[in-house]
Amino acid sequence: MDQQQTKTFERELIALIPHLRAFARSLCGDATSADDLAQEAVAKAWASRASYQMGTNMKAWTFMILRNQFYSEKRRSWRSVGLDQETAERTLVANTNFDGAIALDDLRQAMQMLPESQREALILVGAGGFSYEEAAEVIGVAVGTVKSRVSRARNDLVRIFETGDYVRDGQPVGEAMASMLKTLERLAA
Q1: Domain interval for residue 66
Q2: Which of 54, 55, 98, 178 is the most buried (most CB within 10 A)?
């Protein structure tokens, strides 16, 4: 990769950081872990820049790196659970917009009930703005599989909302609203 290609790669990678952070937040459900995950994905993409083929879909390539890093960390971390002091402190914060906060928290919790494969496909296509083809490339499955997962995810969300059948996870309602609004802002940017 020559110097011009390196500069182009760097510019495109920097432009993708908000999208990577938003995707990481949707996977992790925790802003701090998501930022760490996105940072690790950017570092891995930079370290692997020589293997990137210029002119291909960098967004799909970096999302695949992030997704693979997420699953690798998840496999390694099943043995340890630590106390997140920051989260514990935020539980004492009050929010005055209860209706909006509750609705967003309900959506966040309902999405967490979806199987990871469905949640991931729905986030990429619904919130990330990926085409089915791009999402299939990121996930590494056939286009029809992505369409099926998105359809099932949407149907499952409707069922979950109709029955109210989702588990409360004890996260502060105000935190869910702020987190989801930041994700939506990043995706819209």
Answers
A1: 3-77
A2: 178
The one-letter amino acid code at 16 reads L
pTM of the predicted model as reported, rounded to 2 decimal places:
0.51
Confidence grade of residue 188 (pLDDT, cut at 50, 70, 90): very low
Contact 41, 65 (CB under 8 A): yes
- Contact criterion met (CB below 8 Å) for 42 and 17: yes
DSSP code per residue over 29-90: S-HHHHHHHHHHHHHHHHHTGGGS-TTS-HHHHHHHHHHHHHHHHHHHHTT-----HHHHHH
pLDDT for 120 equals 86
Domain co-membership, 55 together with 120: no
Q: Is the dihedral of CA 135, 141, 147, 148 positive or negative?
A: negative
**Could you identify the residue written with the tokens 């935190």?**
175
Provide the greatest CA pair distance for the chain.
57
Q: Could you give the number of structural domains in the chain? A: 2
Distances (CA, A) of 118 to 2, 125, 135: 40, 11, 12
The answer as to whether 91 is a domain residue is no
Tell me if 116 is assigned to some domain: yes
What's the pLDDT tens digit per position in 41-68? 999 999 999 889 888 999 999 999 999 8
Radius of gyration of the chain (CA): 18
Arithmetic mean of pLDDT over the chain: 79
- What span, in angstroms and rounded, lies between the C-alpha atoms of 4 and 22? 29
